[in-house]
Amino acid sequence: MAVHLIFVYGTLKKNGKATAFVHGDLFDLWHFPGAQNVGNETAPWIRGQVIVVDDLELRQLDRYEGVPKLYTREKILIFDEIKNPLCIGWIYQYAGEQNGRRCPDGEWHKGIIY
Is the whole-model pTM more than 0.70? Predict the structure, then answer.
């Protein structure tokens, strides 16, 4: 059974500080976050964590994230805390129109008004 690395930045993130980073734009879509423009090196940093899942968990996450209508799952270069390349993994990129507020610090905080 394969293992998969997933960069998480919102509802899947465990409490605690960010330990991984990707380039992209992060928006607060009121009840959940949405990353767009992922992998664009001119975009700001999105703060998150890396989780490890197996094949079954990956399929469950795809359903939870609404792939492919609400989110798409994309390969991305993930960086460590000092912005050195860490690994290649998956990220869920928001597939809808950007209609939320930008998270200015690159981290989604549920219930915070930006």
Answer: yes
